[in-house]
Amino acid sequence: MKAHSSTSSSLVEGRSKVAVDYRYLRMARIWAENSYCKRRQVGALVVKDKMIISDGYNGTPSGFENVCEDDMGVTKPYVLHAEANAITKLARSGNNSEGSTLYVTASPCIECSKLIIQAGIRRVVYAEKYRLTDGIDLLTRSGVEVEYLSLEDGCSSSSKSL
Ligand SMILES: [Zn+2]
After folding, report:
1. Where is the signal peptide (predicted)?
2. How many angstroms does the Cα of residue 50 sit away from the middle of ligand 1?
3. CA distance 105 to 63
4. Which residues have CB atoms below 5 A from the ion given as ligand 1?
5. Strands annotated E in the chain
6. What are the average pLDDT values for consecutive 10-residue runs of the chain, which has 162 residues?
7. C or N terminus of the chain, fewer CB within 10 Å?
8. What is the pTM of this model?
């Protein structure tokens, strides 16, 4: 008789899941450093089946000058958010975001939240809270699992100094 022991590691998985979430979120923060935007740098990663299937940071569309702000320091209206860049990058790839997790360094806005829902993203893990919660509220309302993790581990999330 052979007892086929299936390794039930749900507890271990549960604990390491948080560690993995932090790791991806930290990677998203590092990815945000690619952004040439001065006011704010945001990074996003889309993970599915333990694979990063897309990435993004806030910036202008392909072919535009790598400047996010106008002469007054105001963000240009055609700047894409990190989430939008990650999702639209997926639209051009062979990957599929159905059931994936999005890691983003800032709370998603309502426009990005619409894209997240329509892209079939199941879970959103974000690091920075924002005074407006309409994006988060929309995600929650549509059944997307939303998780907030603080990245306050001694590293400053963004250097706002000029
Ligand atoms: Zn957004």
Report:
1. none
2. 24
3. 25
4. 81, 109, 112
5. 43-48, 51-57, 101-104, 123-126, 145-148
6. 52 77 97 96 97 98 95 95 98 96 98 98 96 96 97 54 38
7. N
8. 0.85
